[in-house]
């Protein structure tokens, strides 16, 4: 019946500023930009080689209820090397909160916000130990 999730919306206050952040800072690729009848643009970005896209849609950025003192990420981006990605994005001006990588039993995460306060996180999953 259902076969694939194609995209999810990220609500942003300024599509051009969001496009700059997601492409030039995070390194995602621009996928499509189509004007709608009312002047809004259907603007998408995604990880190169992956079909799933984020739609940068005008709206009020969301904010989840904190758990254990941390706001949950709305979007998680996998990486093979969380520490390297953390340092690269930090050098590009990305602000991480907390300011360090969080170690979990299953791997690493690093939380950060986009220009509108949407919470994202990098995730590196450790391989399961061979028994």
Describe the structure.
The chain has 131 residues and is of the alpha/beta class. The chain has 2 domains: 7-58, 2,3-Dihydroxybiphenyl 1,2-Dioxygenase, domain 1 (Roll), CATH 3.10.180; 75-125, 2,3-Dihydroxybiphenyl 1,2-Dioxygenase, domain 1. The protein has 2 helices and 8 strands, in the order βαββββαβββ. A hairpin with a 2-residue loop joins strand 6 (102-104) and strand 7 (107-113).
Which characteristics define this entry?
2 domains; 131 residues; four-stranded mixed sheet; 2,3-Dihydroxybiphenyl 1,2-Dioxygenase, domain 1; alpha/beta
Strand and helix layout:
Blueprint: E1 7-12, H1 15-25, E2 29-35, E3 41-46, E4 53-58, E5 75-78, H2 82-91, E6 102-104, E7 107-113, E8 119-125
Parallel strand pairs: 1-4, 5-8
Antiparallel strand pairs: 2-3, 3-4, 6-7, 7-8
Classify the helix fraction into a percent range: 10-25%
Query: Could you give the order of the helices and strands?
Result: EHEEEEHEEE
Report strand order across the widest sheet. Answer: 1-4-3-2
Structurally, the number of domains stands at 2
Number of helices: 2
Distance between the termini: 37 Å
Return residue spans where pLDDT drops below 50 for at least 5 consecutive residues.
none
Task: Indicate the radius of gyration in whole angstroms.
Answer: 16 Å
What is the CATH class of the largest domain?
Answer: Alpha Beta
Form type: globular
Amount of beta strand: 35-45%
Average of pLDDT: 89
* The CATH architecture of the largest domain: Roll
How is the biggest beta sheet arranged? 4 strands, mixed
Which structural class matches the secondary elements?
Answer: alpha/beta
- Name of the CATH superfamily of the largest domain: 2,3-Dihydroxybiphenyl 1,2-Dioxygenase, domain 1
Number of DSSP-assigned strands = 8
- Remind me, CATH topology of the largest domain? 2,3-Dihydroxybiphenyl 1,2-Dioxygenase, domain 1
